[in-house]
Write a structure and sequence with these properties.
The chain is mostly beta strands and about 350 residues long. It folds into two domains: about 140 residues, Copper type II, ascorbate-dependent monooxygenase, N-terminal domain (Jelly Rolls); about 160 residues, Jelly Rolls (Sandwich). The chain is built from one helix and 23 strands. The N and C termini lie far apart (about 110 Å).
Length: about 350
């Protein structure tokens, strides 16, 4: 009896061992184990070539270069670093087919007005600026993606300077990707600053395009030039609504404007928009108006959101109608108006 029991136990043990070898991937619940997640690809960095800028020179120049990624990527963070005399940097993904590695003169936001050419990913005015997108949100990048770096620089000193910049793109794992990020740029060009005076423009109400209804805004940055003292943005249900302040940075500075990342993404009410105000202190002896030069002024803010409905550059202005109107490009038939802004 004891011999038979021993033989039985040996058989059971052998059968269990064989079963374990035959089913190595089975869990105690009967489900197969999930294979390990592929790690995120390594970051890729592009550099705007070091450029010598003579004293008193201001310009906007671009380079177009390959990111060097053999496979498509999802970019979950962008880290830009600007050198001395760099005013701002705009990073685009573009559909160019030929690299242009030598800096050439270019116009700001040219590719935003034609979605077939490309779209902006990030605008940086701070000297060290990191944009981290929410979990699962990213910019999709094609294999061998072309990137345009657009640098606006000014050398206000009396001696020669050099400018440069880097843009580091930090991918997430493909399986973590959920939503495509989008970019919205909004402003008011109706700027008239009398000499030796403090001026406010706004609040200006801008109703967001219907295509953006329901999207989630997760970060925002205000933008002015050297006479600027503050940019404030509220989320409002209508022009009559003062709204809820969402961008109001203490001790805001034009040269290092903070990118406000919201604790939770914000959704604009139906038919609502943003109500924004810009402030300046014109300490010069000259009146100042809107323009692309660092010696002119601007009143803009840009916002990052998801899911993307395409990049847009928008303004509210009284230059088209007395009561004021909104222009959003690339959709508006008035997009050519942008080319005339600095000459009117």
């Amino acid at each position: 009896m004891l011999v038979r029991a021993g033989k039985h136990l040996a058989f059971v043990s052998a059968f269990a061992a064989a079963l374990a070898l035959a089913l190595p991937a089975c869990s105690s619940s009967g489900n197969t184990d999930t294979p390990p997640k592929a790690p995120a690809p390594p970051p890729a960095t592009l550099t705007f070539p070091t450029t010598v800028v003579p004293a008193g020179v201001e310009n906007t120049q671009c380079v177009v270069m390959r990111l060097g990624n053999a496979a498509p990527l999802h970019i979950g963070a962008v880290h830009n670093v600007l050198g001395t005399s760099s005013h701002h940097l705009i990073v685009y993904r573009v559909n160019d087919t030929v690299e242009k590695l030598k800096p050439f003169d270019c116009q700001p936001f040219t590719d935003t007005l034609d979605p077939n050419k490309g779209s902006p990913l990030m605008v940086t005015q701070k000297h060290d600026d990191l944009l981290t997108l929410p979990s699962g949100v990213a910019y999709s990048i094609d294999a061998n993606q072309m990137i345009r770096l657009e640098m606006h620089y000014i050398n206000a000193s009396g001696s020669e300077k050099t400018v440069t910049a880097t843009s580091e793109m930090i991918p997430i794992a493909d399986e973590d990707f959920r939503d495509e990020a989008g970019f919205l740029f909004i402003g008011n060009p109706d700027i008239r600053l009398p000499a030796k005076s403090q001026t406010k423009l706004g609040p200006t109400f801008f109703q967001i395009p219907s295509e953006l209804a329901g999207v989630k805004f997760f970060a925002m940055t205000g933008h002015e030039h050297k006479l600027g003292t503050n940019v404030q943005v509220a989320m409002a249900s209508s022009a009559a609504d003062p709204g809820k302040m969402i961008y109001d940075v203490p001790n805001w500075t034009w040269s290092e404007p903070k990118t406000e990342v919201f604790d939770a993404p914000l959704t604009v009410p139906n038919d609502g928009g943003f109500s924004f105000t810009c402030s300046w202190n014109n300490t010069t002896d000259q009146s100042v108006r809107y323009g692309e030069s660092a010696n002119d002024e601007m009143c803009f803010f840009w916002a990052y959101y998801y899911p993307s409905q395409g990049a847009r550059v928008c303004i509210h202005t009284t230059r088209t109608t007395a009561s004021g109107g909104d222009i959003c490009c690339p959709d508006s038939p008035l997009c050519g108006f942008f080319d005339d802004l600095t000459t009117h």
